[in-house]
Every structure is written in C-alpha cells, then in structure tokens.
Amino acid sequence: MKEHRDDDKVSTSLVSSSSSSSSSSSSSSSDLLSPCPVLHSKFLLDEDDLLLELKMSEDDPLFEKKKYILQKKGLDHMEQVYLKGTASPDWIITTLESLLQRARTIQLNELELYFSDLAVYPPAEFYSPRNELEALNSILSAIKISVSCATDKKITALEDLHAATLNLIRDFGAKYRDDMNMIANHSCDKENQLIHWGVCNGVKTKLHIAYFEGAGRGAVALEDLEVGDVALEIPVSNIISEDLVFESDMHPVLASIDGISSETIMLLWSMKEKFNNNSRFKIYFDTLPETFNTGLSFGLDAITSLEGTSLLDKIVEAKEHLRSQYEELFPALCSRYPAIFPPEMYTWEQFLWACELWYSNGMRVMFPDGSLRTCLIPIAGFLNHSICPHILRYGRVDPTMKSLKFTMSRPCKVGDQCYLGYGNLPTSDLITFYGFIPQGCNTSDVIRLDISDHESSCENSMNSGQQDHMVRGTWNSHNREIFYYGLPPPLLEDLREAQCPQHCTNNLTLGNLENEIEVLENLRSTFDALMDVLGDPALDDRTNCCWDVKLAFDFKDIERGILSSVIASCDDGIYLVKEEYRNCMTEDIRG
Ligand SMILES: C[S@@+](CC[C@H](N)C(=O)[O-])C[C@H]1O[C@@H](n2cnc3c(N)ncnc32)[C@H](O)[C@@H]1O
C-alpha cells in the first residue's frame, strides 16, 4: 500500500526511487507524511466571543498558490471566525460553511490546484472525497484544540459546531458506498490466527477479517466506529521494518553494496524470510497470497490490449526497471554467497512476487526518530482501499504508545467493510502496483499531454515547459461558461498564448473569440487523435478473457470516458464561442 499521509498507507517506492513508477508512489506517500496544512485555532480572551482562527501552515509547499486562491475567493488565509457565546442553528450553518470553504482550499493537493477554477464563486461544492474528508477533519481538530482552552460558556457553541461537523462527515460518507460482496462462509483460519498472534503481542483491533468478491480479504467493523475511534493499533514491535535486516546474516553483504536502497534490502530479506520456519513473522508470511495479480504480472495479451493508453508505458517501464534491478544483483549474489542467497529463493519469479508484495502491502511509516521507512504491517495489510476511505491518516508512530494507530476519519457501521486511503493514486498506479480499479469516480485519473508534440501553431510556443498539462473527466468541473467549458484553466491559458502571444485577457473581442475557436478546434483534433488510438470498444473481446485483459479493457474504458468528456466540452465550447462571435458581429454592424 502506499500512503502514509500522516496518515495513509504507503505505496512503496520499492526497489529504487528512480523509476517513474516509484516516483509516483513516493509523491503520494510524501503527501501523507508531509506537514498537513492544518488549521490552527486560537482564542480571544474577550468575555463573549471566542476566536477560531483557521490558519494555513507556511510549511505547506503549496502555501503561496493556496493563499492566492483564498484571496481570489475573498477569503483571507488567516481568517478568523468569531464564535458567539450562544449559537443559533443558522449561525452554525453559516459558520461551518465559511470554515469549510477555507479548509477545502487549505487541503487542496497539487492536482486539485491545477484543476481548480478561480472564476467560480461561490466555489465548487467539493473537490474530491479526500479533500472533503481532510477539510472536515481539520475543522474537527481545530475545534478540539479550542475546546481545551475555552470557557464553559463557549464550550457549548464549540460542541454544537463539533456535532454539526460530525453530521456533515456522516452525510458525506453515506453518499459513498463501495459495493463489495462479502463471501459468506469463506474460511479465514489463517487470518484469524494472525489476529490472535497480534492480540497476544499487543495489537488492539475493532476489526475482523472476511473475504470479498474481487478483492480478497478485507477488514470489517466489529462495532459501530465513530470519527476519532482507533480501529486498529499496532505496536512498533509487530512492524516489519529494516531493523530486522540488521539482525540477519545478509546485512553485512547488503550493506557493502554501493547505492542499494533500504527498500531493496527489505525486499531481499523478505524473499528468504518467507521460507524461514523459525521466523517471528511466519504466521504473517503464511497469510500472503501465492500470486498478487498486479499490472507487473500482466501477460502479453493484456499488454497488447493497452495500446494507446498511459498504462502501457507505466507497466513496461516499471517492469524494465525491476528487471534491470534484478540483473544488477543476480545471479552475482547467489554465486558469491550461495549460503546467504540460495539460488532457488532468488529467481526472477520470486523477486517479482516480492516486488508485488512490497508495492501492494508496503506502508511508509514515520518513526519517532524522524526516519521514514517502508514497512510491512501485519493485520493492517488486510485493509482495502477506497476513494472515500474511513481511515485517511495513519503513518506516524505514536511516540508515547510506540504504536501505529489507525484512526477513523469517518464513521463505519458494524458489519461494514472499513477502508483505508492508499493515497491520491490514479487508476494506472492502482492497476500497476495493486492490480485493481477502485469503485466510483477517481478524481486523480488524468491524461497527461505532451504539449511539445502538439502540431500546428501550438508547436514550440506552448507553455515553455513550465507546467505539465493534463485533462481529466470534465464532469468533475463546474464552470461551463465561455473561456472555461469545464476544461483545465492553465491548459487553455497556455494554448491561447501559444496561438496568439499578444493575448492577455478573456475579453469578448472578435480577435479573442477567433483565437478561442482555433484553440478549441486544435484541442479537439488532438483528443480525437488520442481517442482513435484507443480503438473501437466493440472490438475489445471480453468473452472468457483473463483477469489481466479484463483490467486492461476496463482501464481503456476509463480513458475513453475522459477523452469523450473532453471532446464534448470542446464541441460545446466551439458552439458557445461561435454564438458569441455572431453576437459581437451583429453588434459591430449595428454600432
Ligand atoms: C494491502 S492489500 C489489502 C488486502 C488484500 N485484499 C488481501 O487479501 O491481502 C492490497 C490489495 O488488496 C486488493 N484491494 C485493495 N483495495 C481494493 C479494492 N478497492 N478493490 C479491489 N481490490 C482491492 C488489491 O489486490 C491490492 O493489491
């Protein structure tokens, strides 16, 4: 797994940080750990009022961009909300709405910032499930801090605000139901043994394990879990981290290899440890699947089916990277140290299995000494991913308890599956490193554009390499007005400038409108070409196809959906601009 936002699971950037695959993983994981743009609260000593200050952290690398957005929306990045001694229901609704507008912006990630549309006011209802949950939970944290300092009189107002925020979280979560069918009567003996082992070793859990169609094991709430409840707590001593390798006979050999990453060391250790009958983690290794079925195991048919998609390059690059990593180490290590690296345990197939294990189950954990390590975490490894997870932040070891806590960011009813957020991962990463497509609309799914290849007038002048451009399903965007059309504002802006360098404003002049039509028509033809490469969906033969070919076809459908929404937005835009052009002509003639 991946994330570990202060919180999530990690998608490991296993083996090395140089591959494109690993870089995407590590970026999401840094999300998790990075200083969360928290809301601070502060108090006024005034008799009747309490001041709740929502302040953006200046450590946030996106601070300046977010500050700019807040200003554009007429919100100050340090705006203060006065809490009255008594709170009317109307006051609570308005106050919460105002807090939420600010918190949503503060919690935007880089991708959401790219697509955010400053021209829409009132601002979009929400940006993504992750953003909404982060925003609401950050308000809860701010209120919690305030309560600890407030006088009795204001505590009531804070409690009302707290309750209203919890209601919003509950209502929001209720809209997202991942429909996974539990497989009744599936034996969970091995999983139960692992839980028993964990509990004997200090694990506390409010989850049990069940099997789900299409997802293997998942964790189910044993009782109603509320926001703030700790669903699972794992003592550090039960975490598989590089400390274990220090104790093993392979450590001196591995430590002497120049430039080897700690992830690679862990991976090589686990390849042997899984065969060790005396391993302290034998029960854990016994629960692991024999095959992982991630994109890294795609066969030739599936790879061929991906022609024209971004997933094809991702999988091929990741696989080539792993192959070259393997060949750098083997058979050399087996020949030189056969007792430490028995050849039968270090085949390419075993290596790939271990890579899939670490990519799909590794979590990045921040230890109290400040070190950030990729770890395997027994029991937590049963948690599946959702785009609207119950557990958002989880990667930081509690220095007092010396444990990792999985705390609820939204409620989960008894008997429901409890989901983790692996990170803001696009479906291409989820297929490559985890082997599944999440339910619902994944707002991280984008199609990146190589603008330098854009023919015609856009060539050379586009964007001067400063910003990577991309599109996503335009159903995610709210502004369909002229000059917006649901398309990404930075992309349109760069295209306009490439088309007409003198362009400076979006005024309704004939020149601007002519330029706009050309921009949209060029864009449309670019996306038509991309769509053609994906081929006719009717030719995707799904009868009796294998798991990997099915995933490949499903991914193609996702990209087709994005492209057709963009093409439709271009068409609507061309229509809109031409109408406006005609209106301007008519006015010019009249004038
Ligand atoms: C950390 S493990 C979670 C436990 C896993 N289901 C198992 O049985 O071991 C991650 C793997 O779970 C599966 N998975 C996680 N979330 C999923 C989802 N929403 N839908 C389908 N499969 C999912 C994928 O196979 C992924 O590689």
From TrEMBL:
What is the organism of origin for this protein? Dillenia turbinata
Q: According to the UniProt record, where is the region Disordered?
A: 1-34
Q: Entry's Gene3D superfamilies?
A: Rubisco LSMT, substrate-binding domain (3.90.1420.10), set domain protein methyltransferase, domain 1 (3.90.1410.10)
Question: Low complexity compositional bias: what residue ranges?
Answer: 11-34
Q: Name one GO biological process term.
A: methylation
- Biased composition of type Basic and acidic residues is found at 1-10
Does the UniProt entry include the keyword S-adenosyl-L-methionine? yes
SET domain boundaries: 205-423
This chain's protein is named SET domain
Matching entries from SUPFAM superfamilies are given as: SET domain (SSF82199)
Ribonucleoprotein listed as a keyword = no
Lineage of the organism: Eukaryota, Viridiplantae, Streptophyta, Embryophyta, Tracheophyta
Q: Which UniProt keywords apply?
A: Methyltransferase, S-adenosyl-L-methionine, Transferase
Molecular functions (GO terms) = protein-lysine N-methyltransferase activity
